Amino acid sequence: MFEWGKKDTPRPYKTYSKRIIIHDTADHFSTRLMDIQLWLTTFNVVITVQSTRDQPMLNITEEELDRKIYPKIWYNQNGGGNVSVNDLRRQRENQENLYGDITFSLEINPNASPWYIKLPNAQTERPDIAVAALYCKHFEKKSIEEGKLNISTFAGSAEPLYFTAFEKDDTLKFNAELDQTAKQLINELSEVRRNDIWNKPYYLRLHSTNIGSRRKTLNINQQDDQIRMTFLMPLFVIGSLDVLVPKEIIPAWDPPEPYRRKFG
Questions:
Q1: Is the pLDDT assigned to residue 69 strictly greater than 80?
Q2: Is the CB of residue 49 less than 8 Å from the CB of residue 211?
Q3: Do residues 85 and 94 lie in contact, with contact meaning Cβ atoms separated by under 8 Å?
Q4: Distance CA 170, CA 144 (A)
Q5: pLDDT digits over 237-251, tens only?
Q6: Pairing of strands 82-84, 135-142
Q7: Which residues are CB-neighbours of 191 under 8 A, at least 6 positions away?
Q8: How far apart are the C-alpha atoms of 167 and 159, rounded to whole Å?
Q9: Distance between CA atoms of 115 and 15, rounded to whole angstroms?
Q10: pTM of the entire structure?
Q11: Which among 198, 6, 227, 190 has a CA at the least distance from the CA of 102?
């Protein structure tokens, strides 16, 4: 679609100029001006959970059912505090697989697709790209009981990025003195890897504590929970990550409203 006064060719949102100091020798250095391009990208994520309608096949222990708790106000129970899943068996909460915590992991690899940056004077098929940040721009829940659907993101939140898809123990055990030297070397290499931001995949983790398949009215009304999200991902192309992201591109802070008991 063409708009009057706007160019139809893609171009960076902003371009920063940074002076780089290059040490040619120990006594001599030179400077070079480098352009840092900030590109804005958006992508959509839809999560739909389809749970089994029958009794869960997992053998959940009584201790696990007691540890999993929900706010009492969700079930119109008097008083504050929480109620365990074990106390909600008659309401078929355990049949909806809602008490199983789940974490969704999404790999974000900016240079996995064969896309390129084309400028008036130059073109590169594989630019060096760094993920600058990740923001949730739009968040929408579709559920029979929307208030009970809980997930660890909302519109305007800045999402943390991880090096691994899920938590894992990278602790190395060493006994001999030689092993301690190897451990120090591995730690130094890991630190170099953390500082290298270019062309590196990251992982977004979305954790939910109450998502599944909802039932109402003697199982006549059934619906699988669904979450729709739009993420804003600024990308730096050729440059350094020490340029601040402009505030005007960060979505407005819009956390979900907390549950409150109303009198009227």
A1: yes
A2: yes
A3: yes
A4: 41
A5: 876 667 778 888 888
A6: unpaired
A7: none
A8: 16
A9: 20
A10: 0.73
A11: 227
| Cα-only R_g, the chain | 25
pLDDT digits (tens, 9 = 90+) for 1-30: 334 455 666 788 999 887 777 767 767 778
Give me the pLDDT at residue 4, please. 47
Give the SS3 label for residue 195. Answer: helix
Query: What whole-number distance in Å separates Cα of residue 230 and Cα of residue 237?
Result: 22
Selected residue with higher pLDDT from 234 and 59:
234
Q: How far apart are CA 189 and CA 170, in angstroms?
A: 14
135 burial level (CB within 10 Å; 0-12, 13-18, 19+): buried
Angstrom distance (rounded) from CA 206 to CA 45: 11
Dist CA 94 CA 84 (whole Å): 11
The one-letter amino acid at 237: V
Per residue in 142-179, pLDDT (tens digit) is 887 777 788 889 999 999 999 889 886 555 454 555 56
Q: With residue 194 as reference, give the H or E element that holds it.
A: helix 177-195
Q: Are 143 and 48 in contact (CB under 8 A)?
A: no
Helix, strand, coil shares, percent, the chain, to 5: 15, 35, 45
DSSP state of 112: S
Point out which residues pair with 161 in neighbouring strands. 204
Give yes or no for a contact between 240 and 257, defined as CB atoms under 8 angstroms apart: no
Domain ranges (residues) in the chain: 14-51+97-249
Cα–Cα distance for residue pair 233/132, rounded to 1 Å: 7
H helix or E strand, kind and range, residue 184: helix 177-195
